[in-house]
Specification:
Blueprint: E1 3-9, E2 13-20, E3 23-31, E4 41-50, E5 55-59, E6 66-69, H1 74-83, H2 89-92, E7 98-105, E8 114-116, E9 121-122, E10 126-129, E11 134-137, H3 144-157, E12 162-163, E13 182-185, H4 194-217, E14 222-225, H5 230-237, E15 245-248, H6 251-264, E16 272-274, H7 287-293, E17 298-300, E18 306-311, E19 315-321, H8 331-353, E20 357-362, H9 369-383, E21 390-392, E22 400-405, H10 412-416, H11 432-449, E23 455-459, H12 461-468, H13 472-482, E24 486-490, E25 499-503
Parallel strand pairs: 1-15, 11-12, 11-13, 15-16, 19-20, 23-24
Antiparallel strand pairs: 1-2, 2-3, 4-5, 4-7, 4-14, 5-6, 7-8, 9-10, 10-13, 17-18, 18-19, 20-22, 21-22, 23-25
């Protein structure tokens, strides 16, 4: 399988496209005006404590206060473990308190950022947890022998660490008194020697020292540590990538990335490539067109079937339809083949659109148990390549499959689009006929309330055309009924739903 990473850099935004076998699989977008804040450290101030929600709002200097749940407060968990009783949010924090927090989720929609006091700072091979002595190994390292080697290597460098049975992939480890700092060994460390790991460890300790120095002089709300920009973060976090090329269309950015890679990830340097072509880099493999298609509600399948995706506040629903696919043998076989193809397409769409939270898939009902099992297995296999944490339920009695996918940043649609001003996000507008009848009711209401000589109706072109054409008889009858003339005027700036009835 051939893999490429295309990087398009402009002063306003950076776009990264992951290509597998010539097909776009994932796209990351970072804009200069709205950079993601996941991983940033802030010295915040507790602005409000909500006992009913077991959480607090923390002012970190953003437009909206950020959300901190009691389960994300390390000190509360430590006290609960020591006392054996649950700690409430009022016992953990109080209004006006200064608190060091890390952003775990970007602000999504109307919600503020999600925070945690479990501080973790990543580098190439390790994740540093300054308030713990725990040692964890990434779950993605599957070979027990390699896990043991890495554990022994870490303990040889830092004997004070406490190995845990848990993987600590979530970066949560109980605070320890007098802690010098715990570590999680990342997937990228697989097969890496002592020297590289020790260098990473020393770098992270120096970085934490500089953060502590900054904290002594800081006054909340303020940022004390900012994570790397998108392209450098990508180079740092590429662990087991099989990408043959990483093409960058900006010479300046290419120079920065190359210097960064030489220092941190020397193995990636031969794969880096400056793209000087006249053709825009994201026009390669029709990437730009694919991004545009990823914003559409309907996804066509090669067989003739299609998917319909709807994002709502609570969840994303995906409906599978046979569409124009009629099959060859029988109905069950047609349904089975459509569902199999849909399973692969769904896995790709989740990555491409960055859909998170609860995802409900309505496959076409299958009668045979074996077919249901195969479709579910195909879905699981297709989702294995996804970097986000995913869990899949069994097919329910209603033929639905529930998927949960960890969400840390906005979906592609929310990044690139905004709510339609005409329909306010409903996805539909009132028909011209409906608006005409609303105008008739408004005219009657106005005529009963006020004594007018004439009435002027101001509306959109479509509505006025209908009033003067299909509804002209109704208008004449209404004029006769109220006894006053009605004039019409087109306002080009009005949407189909907007109108005014003016008394003259």
């Amino acid at each position: 399988m051939s893999e490429e990473i295309l990087v398009n850099v402009t002063p306003q935004e950076t776009r990264v496209a992951f290509i597998e076998n010539g097909v776009l699989q994932e796209v990351l977008i970072e804009r200069a005006r709205r950079r993601g804040i996941v991983g940033n450290l802030y010295l915040g101030r507790v602005s409000r404590v909500l006992p009913g929600m077991g959480a607090a709002f923390v002012d970190i200097g953003l437009a909206r206060a950020a959300f901190l749940h009691v389960s994300d407060i390390a000190e509360a968990d430590a006290r609960a473990a020591a006392t054996g009783s649950e700690i409430t949010i009022e016992q953990a924090v109080h209004e006006g308190q200064q608190i060091l927090v890390q952003v775990t989720k970007d602000p999504l929609g109307t919600k503020g950022a999600r925070l945690s006091t479990y501080i973790s700072i990543p580098s190439r091979y390790l994740v540093f947890m300054p308030r713990s002595n725990a040692l964890g190994i990434s779950q993605r390292i599957e070979h027990e022998e390699e896990r043991r080697r890495l554990r022994d290597l870490m303990l040889a460098i830092e004997p004070g660490l406490s190995p845990t049975t848990a993987s600590l992939d979530d970066g949560k480890a109980a605070p320890a008194a007098g802690a010098r700092g715990g570590f999680i060994v990342r997937t990228a460390a697989e097969g890496v020697g002592r020297e590289d790991v020790a260098a990473d460890m020393a770098f992270l300790r120096r970085l934490w020292q500089s953060i502590e120095e900054r904290l002594k002089q800081a006054t909340p709300p303020t940022i004390v540590y900012e994570d790397l920009p998108l392209i450098l973060r990508l180079i740092r976090d590429l662990s087991t990538t099989k990408a043959e090329k990483i093409r960058i269309d900006s010479r300046e950015t290419f120079g920065k990335v190359k210097s960064f890679a030489e220092e941190l990830v020397p193995s990636l340097v031969p794969r880096l490539e400056h793209y000087p072509g006249e053709r825009p880099i994201l026009d390669l493999y029709s990437t730009e067109d694919e991004i545009q298609r990823a914003l559409q509600r309907k996804v066509e399948l090669k067989s003739g079937g299609h998917l319909v995706l709807d994002q709502t506040e609570a969840m994303t629903t995906i409906d599978v339809n046979t569409g124009g696919f009629v099959g060859h043998r029988n109905l069950e076989e047609t349904i089975f083949k459509t569902n199999l193809e849909a399973a692969q397409a769904i896995a790709r769409q989740l990555r491409l659109r960055n859909l998170g939270g609860i995802i409900i898939v309505d496959f076409i009902d299958m009668l045979e148990e074996e077919h249901r099992r195969q479709v579910l297995r195909a879905l699981e296999k297709s989702l294995e390549r996804d970097h986000s944490k995913i869990s899949i339920s069994e097919v329910t009695s209603l033929g639905l499959v529930q998927i949960t996918r960890k969400r840390t940043r906005e979906s592609l649609e929310h990044v690139l689009c905004e709510t339609c001003p005409t329909c306010a996000g409903r996805g539909s507008i009132k028909s011209a006929e409906t608006v005409c009848y609303e105008i008739f009711r408004e005219i009657l209401r106005e005529q009963r309330q006020f004594d007018a000589q004439k009435l002027l109706v101001v509306a959109s072109q479509t509505v006025v055309d209908m009033l003067l054409d299909e509804e002209s008889t109704s208008v004449a009858e209404l004029e006769e009924f109220i006894g006053i003339p009605i004039r019409f005027q087109v306002e080009t700036s009005y949407t189909q739903e907007q109108y005014d009835v003016v008394l003259l």
